[in-house]
Amino acid sequence: MTTISATHLPAGSTTTIGAQLAASPAVEAAIDQIVREARAHSAKLTDIRPPSAELKETYEQLMKRAADVRGRALLYPYIGSGIGNGALVELQDGSVKWDLISGIGVHFFGHSDADLIRAGLRGAMSDTLQHGNLQTNFEPIEFAETLLKLASRKSRLKYCYSSTSGAMANENALKVCYQKHAPASRVLAFKDCFMGRSVTMSQIGDAAANRVGIPLTTLVDYMPFYDEAAARRMGAGDISGQTRFIDMAVSHLRQYAERYPKQHACFIFELVQGEGGFNTAPREFFLELFKVCRDAKIAIWDDEIQSFGRTTEMFAYEAMDLGDWVDVFCVGKMTQVCATLFTEEYNPGPGLLSGTFTSTTPAFAMGTRVLQRLADPAAGFYGSGGAFARHHAAFAKGIRDIAARNPQWFPPGRDYADIVGGSGGMMKFTPFGGKKDAINKLCKHLFDAGVIAFYCGHGPYHVRMLPPLAVLSESDWPRIMSCIEKGLASCAAAGV
After folding, report:
1. Residues 64 and 209 placed together within one structural domain of the fold
2. Model's pTM, two decimal places?
3. Domain limits for position 79
């Protein structure tokens, strides 16, 4: 656990007053009392419940206040009360719901986790809230050391630069690639990718709605992401559809490299696409593209901001045995602090990466604990038979069982290979033909039925879930599926 202690000092050094504060029995007793109190209240939440009639008017007022300060209403009528219990969360209207989106993956250890509350309280004891490049305490260093130790097990990644958001981590990655390959100014990215909402990242992300009114100053060339449904249609004779699709993508990439020789600074890879639809691909797809990038001296940038920690290994590049190819890497969401990692060859010159803030002391303290807990072999999270793989199997079985009882909700579609998909804790299912309006309506019906989910994809569209698998029990899935089936029935009855 992160503490300000004498162990952070060179051997023989005098213990600091900061270390004395961190080791204070009075501080420890106070933290213990707060954690006990939080646990006692959290334990009262054991199942979903509807909103309280007595709180309805107050909640509507809160929603209006949120709309007034934002300039538009919240997408979901979600304002939390400040308490939860694992995958269950209480809202200000008194309702309790299954949180299966976890703030788009931020709350992987659920709500009111005692260990993370403790880490956050310890972090709050530090003399500064924010850390930066000019002044920093030890917590950011410990976070970076912990992350690099894990990342370098099966990669060449050597350095870590922390930042306050995934978009900023991506901005830093792009700067590193630009500097290394100057004057190259073009970027390669996949169709349907999402990179964040800064000016530059909005231009790279493949969603026109996210860049309305933004001048297009970044030169982006889009590549097809692997499409299992299309690959099946391409199969013929002795050559599999998968091989044909990969050959097509390689040819496409070579055309770009030849059309714009030495003009591409990087190729941005999501090994599991997030916003684009939780799309996955065989290892061979990425490997063949990596080879072209290496030959053309194009940086291989692995963006795992949404997928990190959720696949059958901690890093998606570990799961696919591709780590040695990665030059630049981004992580965020689950880690609480976002970061850009890079190899020795991509270590930038002084002044390129900087910023007043890198993140807060509680965020660094909690992020380090998240990494430590993910890496604990006793947790049994990873591997083909690990908890995350078993959770995904339970999710898939539950959706298939619902579809078997209600096939009219899951018509076959030409543009998707299966009604369930994703990897590990990245879960999707595709009802109502993957139509955008239907999926949007379904998410709201699911919310009313006690399940918080979201959507992903760009046609077809899917229901997206990022459950807090680290604290979710496999025995919870029947209760969750009951709510999902109720939401599907309600949506179908309303007409989609």
Report:
1. no
2. 0.93
3. 24-99
